[in-house]
């Protein structure tokens, strides 16, 4: 790791100010992605602005079907939240299956989505749930937020403050972990919304990050059952292929995991 | 046996310090004036070094010295050797290319060491390393052994045309061909044994200290055999003569073979300490471990097994291509030859065997012994072929094996080994009972109702441990003898120190070696200390690998104990005014049998050191040494049965049950033996199910160079093992021990793959059986 300066931000404004006063500054949340990269000298921020003590960015609140998760909330907090478990069980299940206990107690939702790893779990959840990403400047819909592999709509220095979700009527997530990293080799989140629409979002499989599976969404909108997906063919031309899984195998997993997610959603 | 003697389930003495973080490893060592090293490594798999510019780096803060291959050559530091000469079948010696500890002119794999930077801190060394400019001209790359043998492939070493190191054979080719030609049935397979990265928990480390006043060197290092390290550092690498060199291997956190060898970094740190005038410490990070620790396995084989009309094996023909990586590591030549092809008879009576082995250079990490070393490769061929043959012949896998088991001992195989003892059917029956093999069909039906494919597979392995006798291995090309030494010192207060040439890096010697003393003299194991891992303390020894510490190392201890016992009894007889032959040792006392006359053990010891009242002509003191050279290999054997369920939708395998029935001969501590089996089986399951090593064929980059891509087995990948032992004593050593350190890793992969192939109905499946591979194999089975 190269030498770096550490700052502890006390508020959203403070964090933005600390970050903007230096070109090479980076926000530090759980550090589960950023610190390993720095240790390998693949990232060299001059300054780190620690977000974990900003009270506005921490914690979970649920009222009247509206869920708000602070950006610096850890995966473990989401996983064990009884409010999330009842308002959106699929999301609690998702958070409980990220990494290992160490990672879940350090890593945060804000860090995960800002990073937008194509194999991360949260992007599938937030797209399927049609979440809103609240930053220090604006609100961004999940469909617009995730713009490609490791790429988001965030501008330089823009800070994610919270994620807002309207509780769906049904939600389920099924993940097939990469045997080595245990990130998603394919993860599918299925959500049935209050207006009857269904969203199916896939992570780990797309060659450009998280994507929605329109054919499945249509099939499930008229019949929310695992069997409804049977007839859908998954096109593998846009899917990732690597040493762990070919695109054909991932196409198979997209369908199998989608069916399991629907079954889990009940 | 007593509470702490042979056979007692004694808790490990060493665990307290390990589990409380009080172990002392090489990287824990601190000496005055110590500085830190960083190695500059080739980012290319094959390139010419055109120039190395260190001028900017030398001016960086904290930098003490930057050294490369040119300076190493100035000091006449030798090439890294391969210690086992193999001749090709045409009689020519193996074609060994030069391996410089710091590459000169050419680099041949990603990670090849090019220069060392020594600086005040690790960070400064690394910063300066980034400022060193190495100008490379890249060369074409080859990573697959099969490709490397083809005409026109990139050439690694001028000595090895077509990258062929040797083309070796064993057995009778014509007789085996004839057996195949006249067979009632021939089973043919192509079998790949996947390359593995060893991954001991503690990465390698070295601390080299040169003392100018004494002109003396000390090397602390992560070694399984510090004396062998000293020998080669002295005799071949020309660092210092043995009397001027001390090698210490303190607590070592796992080796699995990868810490047998003396690597470039150890040599260079020691040499650099003299060159720079400061003690030099290096500690590998995990990425370096992936890139530079000797890998294991990497064979591609074709086999033909011939059967007569009664399903008796009449011939076995094997052709193997073994990838040895970019350079020949210390024992690399022996692994795919004498440690491998000599086990191709398995547990079976096979009249004709022939194996041809070609070893090949490629632009990959050097390959050498890894837990099992050659025997897992042999077992995998034999046991996959047997199970497949049973399926083809329509007989049960157990029946086919029983038809062919060796039942009379000694049994001379056609491939050197002479099996001395065993009861293969006893292990098979024990494993079949424990696994309820008979009830499998019903379990398969039940699984089907849940949409799962259930399969069962077995593996009847035999392996050879101890790796001896010295004269025999010498005649086969080994550069060293494979005996072991021990010294037993009884102190004046009766406590005992055992100095052993074996080295413990996870095996529990501090407990089991002490149990031998407890058993013999009736003293508590807490009064017995085991001293190992330091060439200044311990007489010459050969170290620990090949499951040899029990069979060979303990045998040396037993010989020394015999001598101590004789002297102690003589002295006691003198003190008790009795006849020497009437003295018995019991519960810490030397007694005159049948009387109430006795002298406590400690009092006898004290008498040996006060020497006030010794028998006529007896020297004072009580300390005896012994060297033990075994008369044969030992042959652990057993049967493993694995039951799996495959999810046909995803190809994911779940191991439902894993049963091991091993014959390790005499067991000193059943708990430690169980631990060895657990660890070995976990590694075997890792190989069979999880651990795939991938190189990019174009660039030679190791794609699986971290845990993000290399799948180490984790607790939740493994079932709860059901293990048991049967026992036939080994006739060739005094304790009847066979060895247990590698069996789990040797026997388990074929059991698992046989189970999965049974579940999916397709014999064509390559390790590791990842979900994707199993899914694909299911698709092509339909
Ligand atoms: C062993 C291991 C296993 C893992 N397994 C999984 C897995 O199975 N599934 C999975 O999804 N993930 C997994 N992860 C990643 C983990 O979920 C991380 O927590 C996550 O990717 C990053 O979150 P973080 O809080 O640690 O962010 P950090 O590492 O602190 O930051 C990541 C990036 O986001 C930026 N950032 C952080 N917070 C904000 C913010 N509020 N606004 C703007 N930018 C911000 C940082 O500047 C940095 O660039 C794993 C990680 C490890 C180490």
Describe this protein's structure.
Chain A has helices spanning about 10-20, 35-40, 75-80, 80-85, 90-95, 100-105, 110-115, 120-130, 140-145, 215-220, 245-265, and strands at about 5-10, 25-30, 45-50, 60-65, 65-70, 130-135, 140, 145-150, 150, 160-165, 170-175, 185-190, 200-205, 210. Chain A has about 270 residues and is α+β, with helices and mostly antiparallel strands. Chain A is built from eleven helices and 14 strands. Chain B has about 775 residues and is an alpha+beta fold. Chain B has 20 helices and 28 strands. In chain B, a hairpin with a 2-residue loop joins strand 22 (about 585) and strand 23 (about 590). In chain B, helix 10 packs across helix 11 and helix 15 runs parallel beside helix 16 (about 550-575). The radius of gyration of chain B is 27 Å and the shape is globular. The chains are: A alpha+beta (about 270), B alpha+beta (about 775). At the A-B interface, helix 11 of A face helix 20 of B. Bound molecules: flavin-adenine dinucleotide (FAD).
């Amino acid at each position: 790791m190269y030498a770096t300066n550490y700052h502890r931000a006390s508020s959203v404004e403070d964090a933005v100010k600390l970050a903007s006063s230096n070109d090479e500054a980076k926000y530090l949340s759980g550090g589960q992605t950023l610190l390993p990269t720095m240790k390998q000298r693949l990232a060299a921020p001059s300054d780190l602005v620690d977000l974990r003590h900003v009270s506005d960015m921490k914690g979970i609140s649920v009222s009247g079907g509206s869920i708000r998760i602070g950006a610096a909330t850890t995966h473990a907090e989401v996983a064990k939240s009884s409010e999330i478990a009842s308002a959106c069980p699929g999301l609690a299940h998702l958070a409980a299956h990220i990494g290992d206990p160490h990672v879940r107690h350090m890593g945060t939702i804000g860090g995960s989505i800002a990073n937008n790893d194509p194999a991360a779990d949260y992007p599938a959840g937030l797209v399927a749930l049609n979440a809103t990403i609240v930053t220090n400047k604006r609100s961004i819909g999940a469909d617009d937020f995730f713009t490609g592999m490791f790429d988001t709509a965030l501008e330089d220095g823009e800070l994610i403050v919270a994620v807002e979700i309207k509780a769906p009527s049904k939600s389920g997530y099924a993940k097939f972990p990469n045997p080595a990293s245990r990130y998603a080799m394919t993860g599918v989140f299925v959500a049935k919304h209050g207006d009857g629409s269904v969203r199916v979002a896939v992570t780990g499989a797309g060659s450009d990050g998280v994507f929605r599976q329109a054919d499945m969404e249509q099939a499930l909108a008229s019949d929310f059952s695992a069997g409804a997906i049977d007839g859908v063919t998954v096109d593998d031309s846009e899917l990732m292929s690597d040493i762990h899984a070919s695109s054909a195998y991932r196409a198979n997993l997209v369908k199998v995991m989608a069916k399991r997610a629907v079954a889990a959603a009940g | 046996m007593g509470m702490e003697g042979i056979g007692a389930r004694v808790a490990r003495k060493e665990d307290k310090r390990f589990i409380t973080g009080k172990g002392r490893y090489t990287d824990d060592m601190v000496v005055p004036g110590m500085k830190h090293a960083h190695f500059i490594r080739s980012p290319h798999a094959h390139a010419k070094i055109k120039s190395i510019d260190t001028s900017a780096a030398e001016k960086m803060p904290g930098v003490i010295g930057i050294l490369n291959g040119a300076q190493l050559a100035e000091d006449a530091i030798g090439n890294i050797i391969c210690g086992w000469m193999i001749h090709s079948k045409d009689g020519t010696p193996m074609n060994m290319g030069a391996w410089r500890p710091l590459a000169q002119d050419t680099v041949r794999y990603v990670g090849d060491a090019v220069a060392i930077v020594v600086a005040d801190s690790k960070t400064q060394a690394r910063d300066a390393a980034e400022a060193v400019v190495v100008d490379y001209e890249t060369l074409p790359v080859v990573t697959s052994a099969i490709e490397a043998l083809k005409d026109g492939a990139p050439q690694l070493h001028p000595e090895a045309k077509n990258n062929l190191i040797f083309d070796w054979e064993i057995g009778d080719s014509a007789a085996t061909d004839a057996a195949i030609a006249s067979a009632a049935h021939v089973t043919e397979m192509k079998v790949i044994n996947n390359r593995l990265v060893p991954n001991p928990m503690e990465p390698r480390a070295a601390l080299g200290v040169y003392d100018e006043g004494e002109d003396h060197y000390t090397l602390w290092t992560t070694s399984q055999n510090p004396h062998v390290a000293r020998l080669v550092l002295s005799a071949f690498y020309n660092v210092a003569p043995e009397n001027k060199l001390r090698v210490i291997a303190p607590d070592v956190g796992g080796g699995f073979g990868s810490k047998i060898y003396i690597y470039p970094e150890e040599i260079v740190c020691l040499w650099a300490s003299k060159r720079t005038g400061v003690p030099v410490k290096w500690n590998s990070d995990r990425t370096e471990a992936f890139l530079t620790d000797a890998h294991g396995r990497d064979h591609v084989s074709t086999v033909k097994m011939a059967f007569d009309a009664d399903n008796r094996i009449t011939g076995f023909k094997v052709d193997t291509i073994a990838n040895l990586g970019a350079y020949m590591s210390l024992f690399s030549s022996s692994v795919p030859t004498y440690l491998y092809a000599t086990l191709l008879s398995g547990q079976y009576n096979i009249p004709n065997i022939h194996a041809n082995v070609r070893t090949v250079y490629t632009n990959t990490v050097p390959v050498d012994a890894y837990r099992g070393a050659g025997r897992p490769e042999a077992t995998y061929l034999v046991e996959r072929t047997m199970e497949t043959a049973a399926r083809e012949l329509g007989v049960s896998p157990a029946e086919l094996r029983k038809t062919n088991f060796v039942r009379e001992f000694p049994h001379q195989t056609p491939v050197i080994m002479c099996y001395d003892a065993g009861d293969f059917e006893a292990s098979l029956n024990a494993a079949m009972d424990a696994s309820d093999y008979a009830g499998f069909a019903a379990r398969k039906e039940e699984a089907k109702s849940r949409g799962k494919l259930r399969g069962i597979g077995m593996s009847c392995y035999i392996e050879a441990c101890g790796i001896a006798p010295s004269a025999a291995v010498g005649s086969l090309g080994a550069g060293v003898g494979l005996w072991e030494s021990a010294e037993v010192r009884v102190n004046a207060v009766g406590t005992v120190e055992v100095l052993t040439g074996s080295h413990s890096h996870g095996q529990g010697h501090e407990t089991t070696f002490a149990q031998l003393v407890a058993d013999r003299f009736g003293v508590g194991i807490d009064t017995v200390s085991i001293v190992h891992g330091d060439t200044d303390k311990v007489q010459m020894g050969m170290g620990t690998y090949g499951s040899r510490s029990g069979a060979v190392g303990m045998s040396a201890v037993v010989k020394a104990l015999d001598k101590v016992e004789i002297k102690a009894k003589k002295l006691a007889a003198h003190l008790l005014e009795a006849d020497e032959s009437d003295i018995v040792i019991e519960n810490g006392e030397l007694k005159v049998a049948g009387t109430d006359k006795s002298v406590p053990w400690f009092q006898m010891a004290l008498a040996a050191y006060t020497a006030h009242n010794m028998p006529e002509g007896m020297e004072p003191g009580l300390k005896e040494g012994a060297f033990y050279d075994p008369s044969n290999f030992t042959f652990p054997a057993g049967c493993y049965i694995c039951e799996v369920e495959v999810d046909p939708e995803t190809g994911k395998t779940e191991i439902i049950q894993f049963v091991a029935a091993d014959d390790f001969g005499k067991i000193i501590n059943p708990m430690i033996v169980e631990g060895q089996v657990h660890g070995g089986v976990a590694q075997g399951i890792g190989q069979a199910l999880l651990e795939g090593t991938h190189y990019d064929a174009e660039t030679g980059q190791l794609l699986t160079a971290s845990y993000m891509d290399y799948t180490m087995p984790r607790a939740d990948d493994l079932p709860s093992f059901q293990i048991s032992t049967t026992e036939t004593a080994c006739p060739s050593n005094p304790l009847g021990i066979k060895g247990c350190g590698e069996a789990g890793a040797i026997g388990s992969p074929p059991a698992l793959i046989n189970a999965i192939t049974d579940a999916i109905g397709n014999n064509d499946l390559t390790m590791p059986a990842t979900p994707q591979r199993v899914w694909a194999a299911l698709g092509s089975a339909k």
